[in-house]
Specification:
about 30% strand, Thioesterase, Thiol Ester Dehydrase, Chain A, 3 helices, fatty acyl-CoA hydrolase activity
Amino acid sequence: MTVKDEWIDYNGHLNMAYYNVLFDQAVDDAFIKLGLGLDYVKQRQASFFTAEVHVCYLRELEAGMPVAVSLQLIEFDSKRAHFFQELRHAEDGWLSATSEQMSLHVNLSARKVAPWPDDILANLTGLAHAHASLPRPERAGRAIGIKRGSSTTA
């Protein structure tokens, strides 16, 4: 993907909302490969919803920069998928941002969380096996907060 000119904010770098656009496009690509694309939504009246996201902004991106997003499945259960993404400069390889996300499988008719169907559960299991040898991302599981006594007070 490429950082678009219209995504640049008044600070001269990629606006924070568009980091999420890049991450979201990569999630869609990955979930389509798991069988959870538009056809799945239409045929089964189910989809996946984001329940929580934690983004860390590490290095600025500018207009025209080529970027690539990787996705690693951390864990999943009968209704949820927890994954971690890295957004990198596609040519130079440096890390720009990370995103950690929890998604829920949702029955769209009932608008409630529901178990993954067996075929999707099998696809998630296959992805988990493929990612089993990957180390847990260093930034996974981070919490946001101010540690008292470790910074200047306002």
